Amino acid sequence: MPKFLSCLPTKRDLSDESLLAENGNTKVIKGCTFCDVSVEKGFGVIHEDDGLIAFHDRTPRATIHLLIIPRLHEVSSVRQLTKAHLPLVRSMINVAHSLVPESPPPKMGFHIPPFSSVPHLHLHVFSGEHTFIGKLKYPITGNRRQSEKGLGWFVTAEQVEHTLQNGRTVGLGRGSS
User: Fold this and answer.
1) 114 domain-assigned
2) Where is the HIT domain positioned along the sequence (predicted)?
3) Is the residue at 161 inside a domain?
4) Residue 155 to residues 1, 48, 77, 80, 106, Cα–Cα distance (Å)
5) What is the C-alpha separation between 124 and 108, in angstroms, rounded?
6) 124 catalytic, yes or no?
7) What phi and psi, each to the nearest 5 degrees, are found at residue 136?
């Protein structure tokens, strides 16, 4: 897909063997930019453990703008998460809190496809002031309690947790399904 169309959804069937990496690992997809993150590949990696990798976004939209991804290709987007993925989401949030200052409180969330540039689950973590574009690209919408998702294309980590805990999935609509 041309780079300028990278925000459009792709239909990748993770059971398609032509997409699997040569090492035979069914959780690493050929051609997925985030399945091959490393310092050697030019990523500003600041944290690695058995399950997650954190690195600086290549086009930061705040004073600090990190991405946290699962090492393996668990799901392509936040829309595919289920209640079973809560431990993964919580571990991503915990890593985020360990990497950025608590004041001001960090903003964390996921883009909801088709407004996502890389089809590999990734948590955006922001600390400090947003750029003008960052304010537009990463809006937070929700109800008065902020635990319910609003109509936007960016959903906070807290909203994802709340949605999954209630057995629903994340989508573009209010509260999701």
Assistant:
1) yes
2) 33-138
3) yes
4) 25, 24, 12, 14, 14
5) 6
6) yes
7) -80, -40
Q: Which amino acid is at 47?
A: H
Digit-coded pLDDT (tens) for 87-141: 999 999 999 999 999 888 899 999 888 777 789 999 999 998 878 787 777 776 5
CATH number at residue 99: 3.30.428.10
The CA-atom distances, in angstroms, between 125 and each of 23, 26, 85, 167, 177 are 31, 27, 19, 25, 25
pLDDT, tens digit, 9 for 90 and up, residues 142-169: 544 555 555 567 888 998 999 999 999 9
Domain annotation covers residue 150: yes
Please indicate, yes or no, if residue 8 is contained in any of the structural domains: no
Of the listed 65, 111, 122, 124, which one is catalytic? 124
β-pair type (44-48, 62-70): unpaired
The domain in which residue 42 lies consists of 37-165
pLDDT given for residue 136 in this prediction: 75
d(CA 121, CA 160): 13
- Rounded Cα distance between 90 and 115, Å, is 23
Our count of domains for the chain comes to: 1
Give phi and psi for 46, each to the nearest 5: -120, -10
